[in-house]
Amino acid sequence: MIYGVLLAAGQSRRMGSPKPLLIWQGQPLVRHVATVALASRLAGLTVVLGAEATSVGLALGEMRSRVHVVECAAFATGQAASLICGLASLPTDAIAAVILLVDQPFVTPGLINQLMTTFAAHPEAHAIVPRYQGQQGNPVLLAAALFPTVATLEGDTGARVLLRNPTTHVHWLEVADPAVCVDLDTPESYQAFC
């Protein structure tokens, strides 16, 4: 059972306004990414809220009944808290989680499925990480064996620091789609990709 964890709790400092609420293809970005995730073979999706939790929760619209929503009280301490909160909320049968970022609108259900298929072929891996032309991308699949280590993270860091640890068995998934390296961090990037 592989679940998705959509991180939508950040304060969007560089964007200057909440990224989950940006309009993408006629709907809030958080709803768009959740729709993509639910179109994949994931067993379920947890959406982690924090900053602007009420507004972002409402932006999920009808999707809210199809996802598990959790609020991260410590979201202001950085991404680590949101990631830990999301993983801790997963069902006990979770063997892995695909970590989705709310500011990556070009991720497809096919890419999510490819991460899951690759994990099935490499069950010894702690993480399946997409890579485009040598550049590490997202989303990343984390095996449940890595969850306790993730729980020790602090501050504004995601799992990337763990992926650099030589004891972490990372399987690199080479992809032809640059979408894994595209995120909307600034007003300029948002306008450019719109």
From TrEMBL:
InterPro entries found in the cross-reference section: MobA-like_NTP_Trfase, Nucleotide-diphossugar_trans
Cited SUPFAM superfamilies: Nucleotide-diphospho-sugar transferases
One Pfam family of this chain: NTP_transf_3
Domain MobA-like NTP transferase: 4-165
PANTHER family noted in UniProt: MOLYBDENUM COFACTOR CYTIDYLYLTRANSFERASE (PTHR43777)
UniProt-recorded name of the protein: Nucleotidyltransferase family protein
Record organism: Candidatus Chloroploca mongolica
